[in-house]
Specification:
- By secondary structure, the chain is α/β, with parallel strands linked by helices.
- About 30% of the residues lie in helices and about 25% in strands.
- The protein folds into two domains: about 220 residues, Enolpyruvate transferase domain (UDP-n-acetylglucosamine1-carboxyvinyl-transferase, Chain, Alpha-beta prism); about 210 residues, UDP-n-acetylglucosamine1-carboxyvinyl-transferase, Chain.
- The protein is built from twelve helices and 23 strands.
- Strands 2-15-17-16 form a four-stranded mixed β-sheet.
- Helix 1 packs parallel to helix 3 and helix 1 runs parallel beside helix 6.
Length: about 425
């Protein structure tokens, strides 16, 4: 990338330990799943606390284009969804994996042609697994990656399909979310290496059950690596969207790396969100973590410890954990995350390159990263149009002077206004320290 083309954001340096309360908007993962289920429901649904970010707005725009009524009810985060006959249209996926993998099964039931495309980088993301699966279930699809077209006939046969979902749990979730509307439902059998990010599939099956859909999973008496959704109505549900716990992790990391304190209100006591795993990760690295009365509080240690951890089920936390590890004492081994090479960017190569550019010592392994303590210095940090890469650079910039993050605006993918929230956190901490 030509440096003169960069849009650089000077990551603010923390002059004092962070001391702040940070309120997060709704979960992207829950919002986009709820939108799909509401589009298929037997009546109107309301989403309260819905995330309004680029990924969510792309899903909303796509559903509207396919004939679903979606209106704001008093504020942007409260949405009223009215199902309608699905029609042909155009879907802009941007870089949103949930749009490019959750919408094709629904589009296969439209009456007409649905054209899918997205950002240039999205055209390299793997989609052939779910598109080939849909062909096996009776869908008419041209193309194996963006751009592609789905020619719907108003219904989809469904049935049994075997896929290799080791590249992304979204392949399974995408098929399950719309399956109750298939004539035969769907049975998804996975064959291959273990499926990553299993909590996201648990989120999908939990939300399906809440909408009255009959689901059998390996954990509920089904065969290993097999999920079954019976055909039937999807009940309209008024969804209350939890805060996005993965988006909370950079702010909690800010407490950890500065020896400060950050509290996040409305943290659920029980959740299927993978971001909840940050609690145990931070404890393992030396932080003190408490959850009381719905408020999660992290107190950072004097010195962070390195960590040896399998992040296979919570791969989305890898950029945050890698940033923490780069600032810790002791070598860290992040394992089980080979699938991150197929995310918004090759996250393993990107993290290794960017940390090493700042003086770090990171090597890629077959399934992860080894991070050795090193004295970091300032410099440019490329985001690769990846929101979690951008926030990782911001974490390091809290304690390493002169870090400049390229394209920090890409954080709007899941967290609009990140820069302002980050600056407000530091400004609030500085004001409290001055009293």
């Amino acid at each position: 990338m030509d440096p003169v083309s960069l849009s650089l954001w000077s990551a603010p340096l923390a002059q004092t330990p962070i001391d702040a309360v940070v309120t997060l908007p709704g979960s992207k993962s829950i919002t986009n799943r709820a939108l799909i289920l509401a589009a298929l429901a037997d009546g109107p649904s309301t989403l309260t606390g819905a995330l309004r970010s680029r990924d969510a707005d792309l899903m909303i725009a796509a559903l509207r284009d396919l004939g679903i009524g979606i209106e704001e009810a008093g504020n942007p985060s409260t949405l009223r969804i009215t199902p309608g006959p699905l029609r042909g249209g155009d879907v802009d996926c941007g870089l949103a994996g949930t749009v490019m993998r959750f919408l094709p099964p629904l589009a296969a039931m439209a009456d007409g042609v649905v054209r899918f495309d997205g950002d240039e980088q999205a055209r390299t993301r793997p989609l052939d697994t779910i598109l080939e699966a849909l062909r096996g279930l009776g869908a008419q699809i041209e193309g194996d990656a963006l751009p592609f077209t789905v020619t719907g006939t108003g219904s989809l046969r469904g049935g049994t399909v075997t896929i290799d979902a080791s590249g992304s749990s979204q392949f399974v979730s995408g098929l399950l979310l719309s399956a109750a509307a298939f004539e035969e439902g769907v049975t998804v059998q996975h064959s291959g290496k273990p499926v990553p990010s299993m909590p996201h599939i648990d989120m999908t099956t939990s939300m399906l059950r809440e909408a009255g859909v009959s689901v059998t999973t390996p954990a509920t008496g089904g065969d290993a690596d097999t999920w079954r959704v019976e055909p039937g109505p999807v009940r309209a549900v008024d969804w209350a969207i939890e805060p996005d716990l993965s988006n909370a992790t950079p702010f909690l990391a800010a407490a950890a790396v500065t020896g400060g304190t950050v509290s996040v209100p409305l943290w659920p006591s029980s959740t299927t969100q993978p971001g909840d795993a940050i609690r145990e990760i931070l404890v393992s690295m030396g932080a003190e973590v408490t959850l009381a009365d719905g408020i999660l509080t992290v107190q950072g240690p004097e010195t962070l410890r390195g960590i040896d951890i399998d992040l296979h089920d919570v791969g989305e936390l890898t950029p945050t954990v890698a940033a923490l590890a780069a600032l810790a004492e002791g070598t860290s081994h992040l394992r089980g995350i080979a699938h991150l090479r197929g995310h918004e960017t090759d996250r393993l190569a990107a993290l290794a390159d960017e940390i090493n550019k700042l003086g770090g010592s990171v090597t890629e392994t077959e399934d992860g990263l080894t991070i050795v303590p090193a004295k970091l210095h300032g410099g440019q940090w490329l985001s690769y149009a990846d929101h979690r890469m951008a926030t990782a650079g911001a974490i390091i910039g809290l304690v390493v002077e002169g870090v400049e993050v390229d394209d920090v605006a890409t954080t709007a993918k899941t967290l609009p206004g990140f820069e302002g929230m980050w600056t407000d956190m530091l400004d609030h901490s500085a004001r409290k320290a001055s009293f």
